[in-house]
Design goal:
The protein is an alpha/beta fold and 298 residues long. It has one domain (4-297): TIM Barrel (Alpha-Beta Barrel). It has helices at 13-19, 28-50, 64-76, 101-108, 125-144, 159-164, 169-191, 206-216, 235-245, 258-269, 275-297, and strands at 4-9, 58-62, 80-84, 112-118, 148-154, 197-201, 225-229, 251-256. An 8-stranded parallel β-barrel has the order 1-2-3-4-5-6-7-8, surrounded by 8 helices. Strand 2, helix 3 and strand 3 (80-84) form a beta-alpha-beta unit. Helix 2 (28-50) crosses helix 11 (275-297) and helix 9 packs parallel to helix 11 (275-297). The longest helix is centred in the first third of the chain and has 23 residues, at 28-50.
């Protein structure tokens, strides 16, 4: 599979609230402001392409709510495009546009329809069942139409799991989460959810990346791939995750967001730097991460 290096900025409520300080539902004026700030990320992406990031592998993950114009322009320029179909900021997966989710996919024609799902196989069984049913519906609809699914799997710790590791999030990530990710992928596959790409929270050990990739590609799913998600972690942590995953067969890249643009956009919003400086900073961050992944994958 062609490598896939995605610059992710499909954040919605967290973007408007945490970056711009907008409480509640944005007014039309505030929504336009969010769209303007998001456009800076796209400008950085285009600068990175001009600086040598391979076009065939470069991708964008952007939302319809604030990034519709960006999505249309990117698609027109032949950029790999992923767009979310889930409601923002929900603990349970639900379609952003209810039963009409398909009309929005067809209108924007993204390379990937993307879902973010919180799914712990040792968690609420009824919640997991409800989510899996909706996800199976989406997966089947996409495959019938030759479309692709990008599945962002987040496995939050259950209280009892945290107790087993003394309340340590770091120990949970290292000791428990890798096995839970494998189990979650298996359960969802057994339910009939068939992504083309699994977007996996960063794993600290190469052997865990291998286990996840093996499950993702099991039972003849040879064309399925995994990419690393950044979780908003700092540069050093994200780079460690990429270094573990890059050499593993089945991992083909990453989808990283806040790590690449948060500081630049925060400075831009605060009038500490101008728009061009922010865009060039984002371009540098993205290009550097692409270069690092390609180096570790070689």
């Amino acid at each position: 599979m062609t490598p896939l290096y995605m610059l992710a900025f499909d954040h919605r409520s967290s973007f408007s609230r945490d970056l711009l300080g907008i409480a509640g539902t944005p007014t039309p004026f505030e929504a336009r402001r969010v769209a303007v700030v998001k456009a800076v990320v796209y400008e950085g992406f285009r600068l990175a392409l001009a600086d040598g990031v391979p076009h065939a592998s470069a991708g964008l993950l952007v939302d319809e709510q604030y990034g519709a114009a960006i999505a249309r322009r990117a698609r027109g320029e032949g950029v790999v495009l992923a767009m979310p179909v889930e409601k923002s900021g929900q603990a349970e997966f639900e379609f952003e546009f209810g039963d009409h989710f398909w009309t929005h996919i067809e209108a924007f024609d993204p390379t990937y329809a993307k879902v973010l799902v919180r799914y712990n196989p040792e968690g609420d069984a009824e919640l997991n069942r409800r989510q899996a049913q909706r996800l199976r519906e989406l997966s089947a609809w996409l495959r019938r139409r030759g479309r692709k699914l990008l599945f962002e799997l987040v496995v939050p710790a259950e209280p009892a799991q945290l107790e087993r590791v003394g309340g340590s999030g770091e120990r949970y990530d290292l000791e428990l989460r890798p096995g839970l990710v494998v189990d979650a992928v298996r359960e969802l596959q057994d339910y009939g959810v068939e992504p083309h790409v699994w977007k996996i929270e960063g794993l600290d050990r190469r052997e865990d990346c291998e286990r996840v990739a093996e499950q993702a590609r099991s039972a003849g799913r040879d064309e399925v791939a995994c990419i690393v998600l950044g979780r908003g972690a700092d540069d050093a942590k994200v780079e460690h995750w990429l270094e573990q995953a890059a050499p593993v067969s089945g991992f083909v890249g990453f989808a990283v967001g806040r790590t690449l643009w948060w500081n630049e956009l925060a400075a831009y919003v605060a009038d500490e730097i101008d728009r061009e400086t922010a865009a060039r900073g984002i371009a540098h961050n993205y290009s550097r991460m692409v270069d690092a992944y390609r180096r570790w994958a070689a």
